[in-house]
Amino acid sequence: MRTAIVGSVLLVAGAVAAVTGILPLSDLVELWDRVWPILLFVLAITVVTELAAAAGLFTVIAQHTARWGRGRAWTLWLLVALLATVSTIFLSLDTTAVLLTPVVVVLARHSGLDPLPFALTTVWLANTGSLLLPVSNLTNLLAQHAMGQPSPFEFAALMAAPAVVAIVVPLAVIFVLYRRSLLARYRTGEGVAVDDPVLFRWSAGVVAALVPLLVSGLPVWIPAVAAALVLGAVFLVRRRGVLRVGLLPWQLIVLASGLFLFIEALHAVGLGTVLAAVSGEGESPLALLRLAVTGMVGANAIDNLPAYLALEPSAESPLRLAALLIGVNAGPLITPWASLATLLWHQRLTSMGVEIRWGRYMLLGVVVAPLTVVLSTLALAAFA
Fold it and tell me: What is the pTM assigned to this prediction?
């Protein structure tokens, strides 16, 4: 409920700015055109994953993954890291946060392991692993346009070195923090029977069809909405009681909407000019670090997408845009609102009864975020 309250306050503040003329109507329309597909995608993909989880899809995936780990916790953890990385690169960070988190939690519990290192791996890689391709993150798509529409291969060539560093550093930190539990062994439990094979097959088929459609070039909200409607219809026939208002992440939608509107209002009164002075100029390693760190601070202060939009005018070259992406993609690991993926991840954990205090999350982020951003930016400067 606090999330919705904060979002409502920000929405009211943004609405006041629009009514008083501080935020021009043209800017408001442009903002709406940019963000409504994101919000609709989040809404639809959350419904899909909730229904797929109710059908037992994630439990079955967890059972198979546990067998591949062959009783070694560290092997299982690396498999989870691989899944999170591939999912983020090709399906985007929000998809990873929503789709993979239930798999990870069920997997750890099914194996008798602490779910926290696995859950942290998912959310950190959902953010830091989103540097390689344009489809990995909405900020990348925006930057690709600002770069002059390089091909995905050209984009990947620029981002490859920092992308590798941004994946390796968080994994190293997690292994150090949780090395005792990750060096343990586990026994694979017995398989759990699926309650409704029809629901399971429909859920598996819909998710399997959705994955390639999300990278097909279609606007991602279209296949996500279609998948939600199909699964909703199946559940309406087979298990109507699962369909409830609580499936919709309305609190997160309100918060995200408020953040977008409020930051756009600040941008209208000169936020971009101030940030340009802070972020500096030039393409030396120090200049790139300055921009990347500014992006990291901005993302943790106001969310990564508004931070990118505010700082984009200051990143006037492909190399500087790449540094900005490092800051706003790999840097938002400290505050809960730094990225929508983090909020989605936490919602999934809460719904499954896994607790992680925001205070502990932020303390860990204060260590790993600057380290990741600095080393990734240096890799960019060295290999660009």
Answer: 0.81
